[in-house]
Design goal:
By secondary structure, the chain is an alpha+beta fold. It has helices at residues 86-94, 151-157, 165-190, 202-221, 240-282, 288-304, 330-338, 363-366, 368-371, and strands at residues 14-15, 24-27, 42-43, 48-51, 55-60, 69-73, 76-79, 102-103, 105-110, 115-127, 135-147, 224-235, 316-320, 323-328, 347-349, 357-358. The longest helix is centred in the last third of the chain and has 43 residues, at 240-282.
Length: 378
């Protein structure tokens, strides 16, 4: 049945794509070739259009002043009517005098097909994050996946009659390889990453690459990046620059180790000094008489070769302002509690305890809180 009562020329057909593996496929009527010609592009009103889910049918109308297009996304199975094709309806009314057939190139685009392409770049000179005058040869291998998500954007980026899957894959691969080269060259420097460790930071590099590539792929090629996966980042360990960088890193590691040892020594000295100060505050510093007696006792001890064991310490250590103090006996805690510097929540520890615990939970300390008045209000 023709539109507006005309029934001359054109092919009445079922417009559909039965291809299984395609990205862009041009439809042509039975008995014609896939090449562009007036006969191959002559479509009759009343033809049926079938579009599977995950696909789109693009109608391109070649005109002297351009090629407007419109598309139908699947699933769709209807006769071609003006209500679903507003551009075509306008063209039929103005250019075809309301008659049939009309000229259109019809392309099926597979939106469900995700295309995977491998890529490999290198060796490229990558700059170290700490020694920015050193660049080491690096090679990168991986894969990326993309698909067509926005039909309008894809059509605006390509001449559909010239698009082939292999050609698009080659263009995208070249683009991605260029961006990978650009990112890898400076990623260690830009993010202060030691280049020697870059092989263990693949997820971070993938995230950086995805951010860099995603929008550009859509703008320049009309495709959506599904994922980018790096399988290996390999540093040329036999290069002179790598050996230089490795030596610098070893030297820095040795300096760090020495710094740690020095810091530990300073901490031990500080603890010893604090302990002496606390002993002086408690009156534990021996007098001259005690020192002499101790020396005489030591002489006899050496003569008899009998050394008494150290006097056992039964006091508690206490954590005040993040510092360890003590050991103190319970009477000292009673004085401290009266001054408001020691309470039930203060942490204490002595030999035999597994961990620091609250003073209020220690049996021989808890009793002092029952008889200690609260601090005098100011």
């Amino acid at each position: 049945m023709a539109l507006f009562g005309k029934n001359d020329g054109g092919f009445m057909d079922v417009i559909r794509c039965d291809e299984q593996d395609y990205l862009v496929w041009k439809w042509h009527p039975q008995g014609t070739t896939s090449q562009t010609s007036q006969r191959a592009n002559a479509i009759r009103w009343g033809s049926s259009l079938r579009v599977r889910a995950g696909a789109a049918a693009v109608f391109v109308y070649p005109q002297a002043d351009g090629s407007p297009h419109e598309y139908i996304e699947g699933p769709y199975d209807k006769v071609i009517e003006t209500e679903n094709f507003p551009i075509l309806a306008s063209l039929v009314g103005t250019l075809y005098q309301g008659g049939s057939p009309f000229q259109a190139e019809i392309y099926f685009i597979n939106k469900a097909n995700t295309i995977q392409i491998p890529f490999g770049v290198g060796p490229i000179d990558a700059v170290d994050g700490r020694h920015r005058d050193i660049a080491v040869p690096v090679a990168v291998r991986g894969t990326m996946n993309f698909r067509i998500a926005d039909v309008d954007q894809f059509v605006s980026c390509h001449s559909l009659v010239e698009v082939t899957t292999e050609d698009l894959k080659a263009k995208v691969r070249a683009f991605v390889s260029g961006r990978v080269t650009s990112v890898i060259t400076t990623v260690a420097k830009d993010h202060n990453i030691p280049l020697i460790q870059i092989g263990s930071m693949i997820p971070d590099v993938e995230s950086i690459l995805e951010t860099d590539i995603k929008d550009k792929l859509n703008t320049e090629y009309g495709v959506e990046l599904s994922s980018i996966n790096i399988s290996a980042i390999e540093i040329n360990k036999s290069s002179a620059e790598y050996k230089k960088l490795e030596k610098l890193s070893q030297n820095k590691g040795m300096m760090f180790a020495k710094g740690v040892v020095s810091a530990i020594g300073d901490i031990k000295s500080q603890i010893a000094a604090e302990k002496k100060l606390e002993e002086a505050e408690r009156g534990d510093t021996p007098t001259v008489t005690e020192k002499v007696s101790g020396a005489i006792g030591g002489l006899f001890a050496k003569k008899d070769k009998v050394t008494p064991p150290p006097i056992p310490t039964s006091g508690y250590y206490v954590a005040i302002d993040g510092k360890q103090k003590g050991p103190y006996d319970v009477s000292k805690f009673r004085d401290m509690a009266a001054k408001g510097t020691f309470d039930k929540d203060t942490l204490v520890w002595k030999e035999g305890m597994e961990n620091w615990i609250r003073a209020g939970e220690v049996e021989d300390i808890a009793s002092i809180f029952e008889s200690t008045p609260p601090p005098i209000p100011m």
